[in-house]
């Protein structure tokens, strides 16, 4: 097993473990269900679950669902499926779930429905979070939703008002922006900043009751309009949105903003280390301010930031990925060209390869492009160990072995995976008519061409050496077939089995093979940093998909979508579960054998 990774966040956690600062290390992965998860999220998932795993801790999957306008249950479902797939067999024992139907009050420590009660040390975290092992095997468990804390969050907001630390503001969003000012100069106080506690309590209750239209009023934290940190200039913590929510329906018409909801959701779940990406570093003082101002029981959660994963040639922004889906540049979120977890899965990339890649990129404070080649290398390494070798011809041309009888079938042994400790073999039929790759034949060969050429010899992999005698064309000059002689004495075990020729090519029997649609995917973008373009849609690779009708060895008729195959000399392929039909298999190329990509 690989050594446990080390980085500045893990160092901090290790220090806290050594100090016994918390009864249990609890992290969370908090996606907003406004899109599918992508490779960037995979990094966050592996970091949070990895830390939980290495410290016998727990990681909660929490829907950060406080902005109903852009969210949807389709996204909730896909996120749950993707996270479970990515961590299966690796960290699923750390996955925190709450009992189905439990409200925050009902799962607060010691059963006290007091929102002030947090997992105060030495309160056992296991009371607060039922054992993840039991929960994982229990169908009566669900992930966490920030929306299930709306009652609690409202009470927290009321508490802030009572403490004189929040006020209802009637400025329009535009005015609020203007009063906030530029970072270089102090902002101006809202004229509503001095409202009495009573008036604020009354107005906030009426906001909740639905008395005011969208954006007419907001609740703001009263912090410091002159702060050099713009996020501390009386940030909005609640706004009016008469919008139904996918989890809470029409119960609420005011919704908490991210900064208010996030730290308190962390607190309610007993999160110890709240890990996010570096753009939230400037929000950290606000995160702390809210928790401190409410004078909550300790220990409080703390926020730590790391740099985003941005692989070259990929887009890691849900907003832009939605555009690719909506404008039908791809067939959906799970299009095998998408950098989404569901797209990568459909492409044939394994969860282990994704984990190894994202964890291998390290955890730093500085955003930088990660070379896609690193990911591709990881995928190849993973599939090389895993994939069953098979014979397939993508662009077939017919070849006749004239010294074999029409009905003759010679069974040859083909190795399934030479990487296995004890490689197994299967029987492949060699017959009079076979197909070879059109790229493996040249009538007018360039210098040093070791594949099939007039008068030349090559070895048919696993079978024997053949010699090209005759090229047959139709009247228009199109190639019809290549007529060759098979030297059966060069078969394995034959007297001339060790005869050397420079070229070995792949082939399939014409009669013992099946047709298949094969999709050859390439990079979706032509430039290394599509996300930096003014219009990233202008750098879409027009040749990102090529479809061919290939010929596959007969054994692939029973291929399964979870198996991985190497079509020899061609690359790694997987059966597409979604588009394959009985009698019409569809294979997807996960990746070529070597990086042959030219822009
Ligand atoms: P996007 O910009 O794609 O919408 P987001 O950060 O708004 O991403 P969230 O759903 O809020 O999306 O993300 C959930 C978690 O994943 C957050 O903690 C976020 O910091 C993390 N995350 C998002 N993108 C990346 C990335 N490229 N690399 C590492 N972590 C990421
Ligand atoms: Mg976010
Ligand atoms: Mg976002």
TrEMBL record:
Record domain tRNA synthetases class I (E and Q) anti-codon binding: where: 504-576
Recall the GO molecular function terms of this protein's record.
Answer: ATP binding; glutamine-tRNA ligase activity
Q: What class of enzyme is it?
A: ligase
List, alphabetically, the GO terms of the cellular component aspect: cytosol
- What domain of life does the UniProt record list for this protein's source? Bacteria
Keyword Metal-binding included in the entry's annotation = no
Residue ranges constituting the Glutamyl/glutaminyl-tRNA synthetase class Ib anti-codon binding domain according to the UniProt record:
387-487
As recorded in UniProt, its EC number(s) are 6.1.1.18
Reaction(s) the record says it catalyses? tRNA(Gln) + L-glutamine + ATP = L-glutaminyl-tRNA(Gln) + AMP + diphosphate
GO term, biological process aspect, one: glutaminyl-tRNA aminoacylation
Give residue ranges for domain Glutamyl/glutaminyl-tRNA synthetase class Ib catalytic: 24-383
**Mind listing the UniProt keywords for this protein, alphabetically?**
Aminoacyl-tRNA synthetase, ATP-binding, Cytoplasm, Ligase, Nucleotide-binding, Protein biosynthesis
Q: Which InterPro entries match?
A: aa-tRNA-synth_I_CS, Gln-tRNA-synth, Gln/Glu-tRNA_Ligase, Glu/Gln-tRNA-synth, Glu/Gln-tRNA-synth_Ib_cat-dom, Glu/Gln-tRNA-synth_Ib_codon-bd, Rbsml_bL25/Gln-tRNA_synth_N, Ribosomal_bL25/Gln-tRNA_synth
UniProt keyword annotation of Methyltransferase present: no
Instruction: Check the record and name the PANTHER family matching this protein.
Output: GLUTAMATE--TRNA LIGASE, GLUTAMINE-TRNA LIGASE
Name the family: Belongs to the class-I aminoacyl-tRNA synthetase family.
Q: What is this protein called?
A: Glutamine--tRNA ligase
